[in-house]
Amino acid sequence: MSDTAIDRSRLTVSDEVAIQILGMNKWYGAFHVLRDINLTINKGERIVVCGPSGSGKSTLIRCINRLEEHQSGKIIVDGIELTNDLKHIDQVRSEVGMVFQHFNLFPHLTILENCTLAPIWVRKVPRKEAVETAMYYLEKVKIPEQANKYPGQLSGGQQQRVAIARSLCMRPNIMLFDEPTSALDPEMIKEVLDTMIQLAEEGMTMICVTHEMGFARQVANRVIFMDQGQVVEQNEPEAFFNNPRSDRTKLFLSQILGH
Amino acid sequence: MSGTHAHSAAFVRDAMLPQEPPPATSVGALGWLRQNLFSSWLNAILTVLSLALIGYVLAAILPWIFQSSWSAGSLAECRDQIKAAYGSEASGACWAVIRERWLQLIFGFYPSELYWRPILGFALALAGMAPVLFTGLPRKMLYLSLAAPFVVPWLLWGGTVWLPVSVALGFVLGYAAQRIVAPLAGGLLGAVVAGLLPVLWWFLLAGPFATLLHQIGPLGIEPVSSRNFGGFMLSITIGLTAIALSLPIGVLLALGRQSDLFILRAICVGFIELIRGVPLITLLFVASLLLNYFMPPGTNFDIILRVIIMVTLFASAYMAEVIRGGLAALPKGQYEAADALGLDYWKAQRLVVMPQALKISIPGIVSTFIGVFKDTTLVSIIGLLDPVGFSNSIRADVNWNGIVWELYGFIALMFFVFCFSMSRYSMYLERKLRTEHR
């Protein structure tokens, strides 16, 4: 949980739609993981997705950059519909950044090379410019001095901040966070959350699967609660935490906030 | 438990302990001896017994190696010399046979006035390999690596200079086809055309094209027939080619085996399982005997080329499985991270997946390389004069009839030098590529 002060008035949401999900369904084999998901996310929104494990929240955000394929319904990201068309998929992926629970940095490359790889090979940015961008974002996540080390030499919190910087180097419009702090020691969670708060203040559209309810209260403009592959409840954080409406939500909140 | 008292659980440390040196018995030469040789009574006894055994074996072998004869014309002469020098009971090695025949063990029946060609060729091959093996060398040397595959065979077999040029043209053709077709008709079709066109060129047109050029501008060196190839030159020619080709083919097969395209996957699995399920010696017999039945009458498909193809296919199948092991060891998150960054399949493979999978597979890859190199001795069974095949013909000589250990010892030593260098190189590479906890 982070205690960094945040000025909510600086967080603005635009009227433009960033992501639209219409009647989306997904199955793993015969198992119906996502059921009739309808969601519209505007530019600048900070969405926190929570719910018990196995509720499909990770699968949902992984569908947004097509790490998982949906079988029916529509997903439109930045005006591009995700279909089997590889060109569209690559286009969406280069505009949507993703941060994973286990960082997934490339261990054979230095921190700097991790950050410059995609800009150089996907965006065709000249190497020098890519390095400058990478150093800019590494400074932003406060670890420029580690640029020439390898991921294996960094702590978990540092690795996750590098992973965020790596995504930002592609200058994405949308950032997806898949339980970014779940694999971290308590001492390191704060440094990652601070980085994410900073991003939110700069107006990044963020969708974050997390159990950090303090972060949700502070940063999110909408909290989505999922259970059994469905959106059970969504609301502004204050209302969500103070007056949960469904029984399932009440039970979930009592269990995670109870201790 | 210093500083705590039995009667109270509360404890506060008021001074942190400074770092102290380890005890003298656990560091330095003494520590090493203790840890590695005399860590317990049982280990101490085993150490002494092992040393005694090693001493006993050396005491038997060393005199044989050094009570030897280096200049004699026959085995009988050797024995007389040793008896005269070390007493009638002495037995020693007859190294004279190596001294007399070492050039043949290395070059086979290659014309001796042309020895400079294989020597130059292998020097060039080494120079071409160096920048690939050691990334610290100047990158300009990579031009040598590109030229070597065409120049070295030409130096070895001789003939018109236009043949390697014509073969190289096949690659240019494939590259051009890929550049032209891929943007027009998609990557997959581009890859297929780029793969097929050079093969058609090599089989149908490259030969006549080279002959035509030779008639226009005759330029070449004296040709040497494959029948004259032999010794380590033959082993290295077959081994090096198979090693160099099996890695890229193995990578493609391993990727094909993991592909989402069903037909491609089935072909790759079928190929790998078929080749792995057949002994190399069978493949070599197919190369030497059966293949000619399938060729149009009158075609002269060089025997060494046929053997190289078979050994390469054999090595590639094993290589594919070794690399598949490396691919399987890679966490799924690596693929996902590459995908999420927008890297397409080939870029993800080249920049993220393969560097890691190959690194994991280094021990297996090098084992396969070593195996392939040693397996080249099997060609002696289909009548090629590799070192083992050649040693048989030396022993058939009246003068050297009955000589065994010296020849095989020399051949074994040569193979050991090559294989041990490969093994050392792989360890160097593993150390260099280790990025954790540096």
From TrEMBL, chain A:
GO terms for molecular function: ABC-type amino acid transporter activity; ATP binding; ATP hydrolysis activity. Residues 19-253 form the ABC transporter domain. SUPFAM superfamilies: P-loop containing nucleoside triphosphate hydrolases. InterPro entries: AAA+_ATPase, ABC_ATPase_HisP-typ, ABC_transporter-like_ATP-bd, ABC_transporter-like_CS, MetN_ABC_transporter-like, P-loop_NTPase. Keywords: ATP-binding, Nucleotide-binding, Transport. CDD domains: ABC_HisP_GlnQ (cd03262). It holds the Pfam family ABC_tran. PANTHER family: AMINO ACID IMPORT ATP-BINDING PROTEIN (PTHR43166), PHOSPHONATES IMPORT ATP-BINDING PROTEIN PHNC (PTHR43166:SF4). Belongs to the ABC transporter superfamily. This is L-glutamine ABC transporter ATP-binding protein /L-glutamate ABC transporter ATP-binding protein /L-aspartate ABC transporter ATP-binding protein /L-asparagine ABC transporter ATP-binding protein. The lineage of its organism: Bacteria, Pseudomonadati, Pseudomonadota, Alphaproteobacteria, Rhodobacterales.
TrEMBL record, chain B:
CDD domains: TM_PBP2 (cd06261). The keyword Nucleotide-binding does not apply. The keyword Endoplasmic reticulum does not apply. GO terms for cellular component: ATP-binding cassette (ABC) transporter complex. It is found in: Cell inner membrane; Cell membrane. Residues 232-426 form the ABC transmembrane type-1 domain. Pfam families: BPD_transp_1. Belongs to the binding-protein-dependent transport system permease family. HisMQ subfamily. This is L-glutamine ABC transporter membrane protein /L-glutamate ABC transporter membrane protein /L-aspartate ABC transporter membrane protein /L-asparagine ABC transporter membrane protein. It comes from Rhodovulum visakhapatnamense. The lineage of its organism: Bacteria, Pseudomonadati, Pseudomonadota, Alphaproteobacteria, Rhodobacterales.
